[in-house]
Specification:
Helices cover 3% and strands 58% of the residues. The protein has an eight-stranded antiparallel barrel. The relative contact order is 0.18.
């Protein structure tokens, strides 16, 4: 007599395509996550990063600015199967993730409390860890932390060289997925 054991494969995978909008302490963004494999999604994002300035060197002692940003971020959702096996939500890519986030912040225009504010065009690439959770089917929140490399493009303004720096990324966002 021969016994055959068949185990069902876990079906937890990232979703094919998710559109959403998010806001955080310093910005607002629209994004899409597209499946590349069962556990990897490519997140593309456009939005506005925000900032505040204050002090005696600032006109009126306080200013704010919103500047455009374009981000591309492959995400590996590493615990989808574990969440599913425990009966937890995995829809809308609800899981923990590792990612490499690239962000381009152009000096195209800005929305600001002062006509004199501008942004130095820059590019960053950070290695991130984060969690994404879905509440009530369409609402999401994300928390994440990253560290990497950045460059500010000063040469285009007549300086001798660009400025390289260590880039940090802190994500505290709430949003809605469609």
């Amino acid at each position: 007599m021969t016994a055959i054991s068949l185990n069902a494969q876990n079906t937890a995978t990232v979703e094919g395509s998710i559109w959403g909008a998010q806001t955080g302490i310093l910005g607002i963004w629209v994004h899409n996550e597209s499946r590349l494999s069962n556990s990897i999604a490519l997140r593309s994002e456009i939005g506005f990063n925000g900032g505040f300035m204050g002090g005696t060197f600032v006109e009126d002692n306080f200013q704010w600015i919103l500047a455009p940003t374009l981000n591309v971020e492959p995400r590996w959702y590493y615990n989808l199967e574990k969440r599913e096996s425990k009966g937890k939500v995995t829809s809308k890519n609800t899981a923990n993730f590792f990612s490499i986030k690239t962000a381009y912040n152009p000096d195209w225009f800005n929305i600001s409390s002062s006509k004199n504010n501008s942004v130095i065009e820059n590019f960053t690439a950070t290695a991130n860890w984060g969690i994404k959770r879905t509440l009530w089917e369409h609402f999401t929140y994300e928390v994440g932390l990253g560290l990497g490399y950045g460059v500010e493009f000063w040469k285009q303004y007549g300086y001798a060289e660009n400025d390289n720096f260590i880039a940090g990324d802190l994500q505290l966002r709430v949003g809605y997925t469609f």
